[in-house]
From TrEMBL:
Protein origin, superkingdom: Eukaryota
Pfam families on file: Helicase_C_2
A GO cellular component entry from the record: nucleus
Name of the protein this chain belongs to: ATP-dependent helicase C-terminal domain-containing protein
Domain ATP-dependent helicase C-terminal: 1-67
Gene3D superfamilies in UniProt: P-loop containing nucleotide triphosphate hydrolases
Any one GO biological process: transcription by RNA polymerase II
GO molecular function list: ATP binding; damaged DNA binding; DNA helicase activity; hydrolase activity, acting on acid anhydrides, in phosphorus-containing anhydrides
Alphabetical list of InterPro entries matching this protein: ATP-dep_Helicase_C, DinG/Rad3-like, P-loop_NTPase, RAD3/XPD
Amino acid sequence: MFGVPYMYTQSRIFKARLDFLREQYNIQPNEFITFDAMRHAAQCLGRAIRGKSDYGIMVLADKRYARADKRSKLPSWIQSQLQDAFVNLSTEEAVQASRRFLRLMGQPFNKEDQLGLALLTREHVAKLVAQNQASSLRGANLLGPALPVGLPSTVSVGPGQLTSGTTALPRVISTSTMLH
């Protein structure tokens, strides 16, 4: 995405909306304008993921996306993938990161390995919490070796991706240089 999709602010209708939000809800015009632009950006970025097995690269090619106040207005599913290591990259660094991601995601997979839970139950969440707590204690040498908890192997978190079944979220790259 090149630039930030701000609306035309000189429209009478838009100005009336800003006045209404300020008077009724005490929302400052700049706050709403930024929020609205980030909402439009998120909608555009979300088009890269259309289904469970889709993956993609979202390039935010504008230095304004590096600012915390802008990024905080993006949805959490985008924020969670926008890692500090991928902010303010040069064009060459963004291309290299994209190549690595596509090479990783382009690996063949066995469909049977991708089948599993689509939704975690409370029992599964409790087991995950217990497993994480046990891992923390084991890291401090307070427990012995790990014990299996019976969770399916298809729910996993890997570098640059978050998967559950066949869902893969995209890697988000923010670069302050324009791509040619």
